[in-house]
Amino acid sequence: MFAKSIRWRMQLWQAFLLVCILSGFGVTAFQLQRTNWLRQVDEELERRVAVLSEDVRGPGPLRPPQGRSPFGPEPGFDRRHPFESGFDAGPPLEPGPGFGPGRRPRPEPRGPWIPPDEWPEPKDVQLSEKALSLFGSVEPGDYFYSIWSRSGVLLKRSTNAPPELALPERSEGDTRILARMREWHREAWHFTEMGDCVLAGRSIRADLEGMRRLAGLLALAGAGVLALGLGGGWLLAGRALRPVDEISAAASRISVGNLSERINMAETDSELGRLAAVLNSTFARLEAAFAAQQQFVADASHELRTPVAVMIAEAQSTLARPRAAGEYRETIETCLETAQQMRHLTEQLLQLARFDAGQELLQREPFDLAEAVQTAVDRVRPLASERGIAIQCDLERSRARGDTERILQVAVNLLSNAIRFNREGGAIRVRCSVENGAAVFSVADTGIGIAEADLGHIFERFYRADEARAGAGGGTGLGLAISQAIVAAHGGSIAVTSRAGEGTEFVVRLPAGAPAAPQSGAPDQA
Amino acid sequence: MRILVVEDEPHLLRSLAKALREEDYAVDTAAAGDEGLFKVESCDYDAVVLDVMLPGMDGWQLLERLRRSKLTPVLMLTARDAIRDRVRGLDTGADDYLVKPFDLSELLARVRALIRRGAGKPCPRIELGEVAIDLRSRTVTRAGQPVSMTAREYAILEYLAYHRGEVVTRTALYEHLMDESDDTLSNLVDVHVFGIRKKLGADLITTRRGQGYCIGP
């Protein structure tokens, strides 16, 4: 349930992202602060180591020989070989950060040059005023120092130096200033070119505790921001998703009973408003389809009830008393006729239902439309001559593709309408031709015509104009609807033009069949 | 009693007319709405059986036009059984409503009830002193003894009994007892009245000379 709810999923993703962002931010901020602080400490220590180193070396007999320098004398900064210079910071300081290249004033040149091995080992170190002022205090957190001779003998150390402080590990020839963290102390040291070791350090306990407090504060602030973010996100998600709940509630209220209900959305321009609009239009179409279906069912039951009423009334009134044989015969004939009417109606209803369901299987074969129309004309000719109606044919060979039987059904339907709604002694004109690549046939009569108000409805199921109702009976009101369904299933169209009192013309267009095999190719093919 | 049947389905119209005639009603028929309206406006029917779906003018319109001038009882016949159709029918002024397919005996019973109510005699039995008319079985008794009567005699007696206390003219009797296809001589009513007096007593029906007949005070 929770894992499937969008709100919960959004919440989880938000929590994940917030934790990532906040922890990334906190760790970075803490690291930057710590690095910065360490660099400051190291710079201070480095300065002190440099001052001490000068004192340790003393005014030794260091006189660089002329011309030894690859760079030559240079004002300002000492870039010479360490052996030639008084003191050189050398390459970048490692591992502690902040040990930039030594930038100290160049020391005064002293005495003649003596190789380092031959330098006398100092027995004692006299610290200069400057150095002493740097290690003046004994308060904790202040700086301490320790100096060892080349052979590892402790020469001097400040009183506040921690007692366990030992000579750092020595690496041969390395004269860089190095730094280390040892318990609560930060220490920097340096082996002079003569091999003496100078170390400066300070207790950083208070600073480390400060850093730890900073870390705690950062974590606390992060947690607060996380909680606020999650709470806000939860509320926002709820707000954003509330319309979804409203939509689903409204949609679930809409059922067969109240299809006319719609989703009521205040905001129509938002994404959810558009969703609601789309759903509403879907419901509208559903309602219309449902209403049409209901109308059809009501009409169908209406059409079936009347013949049933005839049969019941006829049978009951005949059975009410003894009758002569002729009367019984009459009743049975009426019942039979009515039953046949019902059979015709149910067949038509079934055919329409099959078209609606897309189950009516149509042949897709090329056939001669003129031939099919001619067959239909032959079939209705007796009916026409009964009413003295002349059928005039103008049939041009035209190939169409489709189901001959169904097209024949359309033609017979149109022709029998033309006969039924014609006047006595009227005429029917049937034409068949090829127009714009379509096979076309038309049936025009000189009958009662169709009123303009009815013209738009005649293809509707069970629609019958008053004239059609009053005219020759037996029409089910489905013939034109079926004809239209058949033509539409062929990908064709059926159109009607009519003038009340003058006549009606139906024009059926069907897609032409087999353009590659024209009339001349297979003239006898059915 | 004269009844108009308006129905466009020819078979149904024919069998309804036949069944009603066999009940000794005078029956006129119409196959379209406008024809029905013309007939109903030109003659006083005792009841109208009216289909809803009609060419020319549908049953609703006919009923509306009829109700502007007449109170003739109307039984609507329809194949639509939706409740709103029935409500509409009754609200437009129909007195009763029957859904197709119906039972013939029910239709006949409803027509009888309509005629009784239209005449203000909802009881299916009318007593005139020692003579009693059973409107349901269409039989007459005198002092408890059944009296056999012809259809015409019964129809005249029934009509006069429905209009007890009123003077009924010969024209009214003709109009209500004979349908449009009947072609009877006028003095035949007198012959039937004579027959009734012979069977039920001379003082049951009084003759108001120059006006018509009357039952009762």
Detailed description of the structure:
The complex is a heterodimer of chains A (526) and B (217). Chain A contains ten helices and twelve strands. Chain A is an alpha+beta fold. Chain B is an alpha/beta fold and 217 residues long. Chain B has two domains: 2-118, Rossmann fold, CATH 3.40.50; 125-215, Arc Repressor Mutant, subunit A (Orthogonal Bundle), CATH 1.10.10. Helices cover 41% and strands 22% of the residues of chain B. In chain B, strands 2-1-3-4-5 form a five-stranded parallel β-sheet, with helices on both faces. A four-stranded antiparallel β-sheet of chain B has the order 6-7-8-9, with helices on one face. A two-stranded antiparallel sheet of chain B has the order 10-11. The longest helix of chain B has 15 residues, at 104-118. At the A-B interface, helix 4, helix 5 and helix 9 of A face helix 1 and helix 5 of B.
CATH architecture of the largest domain in chain B: 3-Layer(aba) Sandwich
Separate helix tally of chain A: 10
Strand order of the largest sheet of chain B: 2-1-3-4-5
Report the principal-axis shape of chain B.
elongated
Task: Write down the overall mean pLDDT of chain A.
Answer: 79
Task: Return residue spans of chain A where pLDDT drops below 50 for at least 5 consecutive residues.
Answer: 60-105, 516-526
- Compute the CA-based radius of gyration of chain B: 18 Å
Structural class of chain A: alpha+beta
Overall tally of structural domains of chain B: 2
Structural class of chain B: alpha/beta
Features:
heterodimer; A: 526 residues; alpha+beta; Helix Hairpins; Heat Shock Protein 90; five-stranded antiparallel β-sheet; five-stranded mixed β-sheet; rod-shaped; disordered C terminus; B: 217 residues; alpha/beta; Rossmann fold; Arc Repressor Mutant, subunit A; five-stranded parallel β-sheet; elongated
